[in-house]
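Objective 1b. Sequence-to-structure analysis of MFS transporter.
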Amino acid sequence: MNNETGIEYWKKLIVVLCFGWVAIWIYRTVLTPIYPEIQAALGGISDTEIGFIATFYYGAYCSGQVPASLAVEKFGQKLTLLCGFGLFTVGTLVIGSASGISMVYTGSLFSGLGCATFFCSAYSLSGENVPENRRAFASAIVNSGAAIGMGIGLIGSSVLVKSMNLAWNYVLYFSAAVIFIMFIVFALMIKPRENEPVRVKEAHAPTPVPEGGGSNLLSLELVTVYFLYFCTCYGYYMIVTWLPSYLQTERGFEGAAIGGASALVAMVAVPGALFFSSLADKFKAHTVKLVIALEVMAALMLTFTVLASNTSVLMISLVVYGFLGKMALDPILIAFVTERAPKARMARALALFNLSGMSSSIVAPPLTGFISDITGSKAIGFYLSAGLLVSGAIIFTLVYLRGSTKATVQAA
């Protein structure tokens, strides 16, 4: 860390990055509560076509990960972020002015490419400037912006469109304004990286690599974590995309209650992320057990959401899922990867990790929409998400036990 930046700078930086996620997640969730209104406005398009809105966005987001990381290395985080959020603003405005689904897809593509610049820029900035003993907790604070943005997007669009009868595209104009404000904040608050190519390496140098750790990016342990993250994200993005529609069409929720119930899932994720990241830092020897417990519990909560016979049980299931779901696991799994990846290829390992998780966001929305079109219900989508979580936890457990047995034999 550059001492000239001082403690004040890294603290401000974490707040700025947190609000970056807020802007991104307002956009990501602002449409989901008003899918029925969008379908009606665009000529009664199907659930599958609606699901492809997210597919275009996340497909572009995943495709842009590697080019964005190369841009960060060549031009620095600040310029990369400014270019990305400029494109992000344009894409959001394109969707807001769309008269057909093709134009919505185009805007989603632009927005996804713009957002792709954030992950590598944000976490390389925190890696360079945040003290080593604060990085896990700092990551949880940055990640909490996603939950805050999700809550604002879900509640905001529900109130504006369903309760105040505002045209659906106006929520996109509001989102574009928030994104442009963050463009200005990045320009004013983020300091350009100095020409010190060794800084990133020095920032990661203290990270210990355990004996027997992966010697390549596709070691069995790392591939297992990549798959586990895919399973974790699949359920999350299924919830983000289709929960509001499920609550409205299959559980009888109306008006602002749709966004409010969905937003509650996001808001409880903030204390969950902070609590479990602190717990993982304190009891590192039990990290694997904690991960397995969280995955299994999340699967149970998704199942209970569908099986719930009344609103109270349904809401309890959703709240518990939010508390111990993806947001709680993110900082733990990121630390798991960084401790096992080769030091020289840490960034690429994290890129593969993020790509694995985000690839689920390409599959989950249209697949759940397709299931809904075929069966008339999104319940099977919830069961599929729960099954993936359990499968990921089982494979993760088996690989961990294999590694522990191997280490015991070698020690003997």
